[in-house]
Amino acid sequence: MNSSMIATDPISESVWASIGWEGRETVGDTAHGFFYAQRTVDDRIAIGGRACIPIRLLPHRTSMAGCPSTPSST
Predict the structure, then answer these.
(1) E-assigned strands of 8-73?
(2) 3 to each of 25, 36, 42, 58, how far by Cα in Å?
(3) Tens digits of per-residue pLDDT, 20-34?
(4) Secondary structure class of 29 (helix, strand, coil)
(5) Rounded to two decimals, what is the model's pTM?
């Protein structure tokens, strides 16, 4: 399982108004591993996610423990 996160610089109110993101809702997508984005208290967008990396990309891994069983991960 791989987990990553990144955040933008603080975003001005005029940019937030043009985006239309008025609250602090969290958005997510579980169709591709797990992805989320959230407006932080200091007006940044924090983007993160988790996903399984196929063993062929990580030769030191010997199992996919913690990853869902899918045709692409077996």
Answers:
(1) 26-29, 34-39, 45-51
(2) 21, 12, 23, 15
(3) 888 888 787 767 667
(4) strand
(5) 0.59
